[in-house]
Amino acid sequence: MRIISGEWKGLRLQGPKGAQVRPTTDRVKEAMFNLMGSVHETLPVVDLFAGSGGLGLEALSRGAAHAVFVDKSGLSLKVLKENISRCGAESRSSVRRMDWKEALSQLRTEHKRLGWVFVDPPYRMDLWESVLEFLQELGFEMVNGIVCEHGRQYQLPQVKGVYEMFKQRAYGDIVLTLYRERN
After folding, report:
1. Residues 137-171: pLDDT tens digits?
2. Which residues lie below 8 Å from residue 92, measured CB to CB, with a gap of 6+?
3. pLDDT of residue 8
């Protein structure tokens, strides 16, 4: 697992051990960032269910102003903090050890606008639509969008509240679904 592009290109990241943890592969991560296009340089990105932090750190490497990493697992957070330190990204990162809903609620008191939100919940946890609903409920302005990484067995809706699917690609058993606010 490594940083694909940007300031820390080629830097190897640590991955947590365990059957419940499945970091995004380099191939899928590269495809994801190609689909996304640019990263907004003045807005935070949010890496929900962050694990080792590969998605948020990739966004920082490509110019994101700040990344908020959210995970409840102590093991994942230990590895995440090591990876943040390895990149020298402490000043551009915040780590929240809490439930995703609690973290987003807290974040809403600090920010009205977000760049990208990465949603890659643990295996067999079908939370994508719940996250979309909660982001809408909190009233965030999504400047870039929401990236959902999921297995082929999950079919996400074309439209969910104020969000519409604008890109979807499959890479083996993994599907990337990108949403943005409807006009």
Report:
1. 999 999 999 999 999 999 999 999 999 999 999 99
2. 60, 64, 65, 66, 67
3. 97
What is the SS3 assignment for the chain?
Answer: CECCCCCCCCCECCCCCCCCCCCCCHHHHHHHHHHHCCCCCCCEEEEECCCCCHHHHHHHHCCCCEEEEECCCHHHHHHHHHHHHHHCCHHHEEEECCCHHHHHHHHHCCCCEEEEEEECCCCCCCCHHHHHHHHHHHCCEEEEEEEEEEECCCCCCCEECCEEEEEEEEECCEEEEEEEECC
The pLDDT confidence band at residue 18, using thresholds 50, 70 and 90, is low
The predicted structure's pLDDT at residue 126: 84
Whether the model clears a pTM of 0.85, i.e. scores above it, the answer is yes
pLDDT at 123: 67
Domains and CATH numbers, the chain: 26-181 (3.40.50.150)
Instruction: Report CA-CA distances (Å) from 178 to 70, 88, 107, 119, 164.
Output: 20, 29, 21, 10, 8
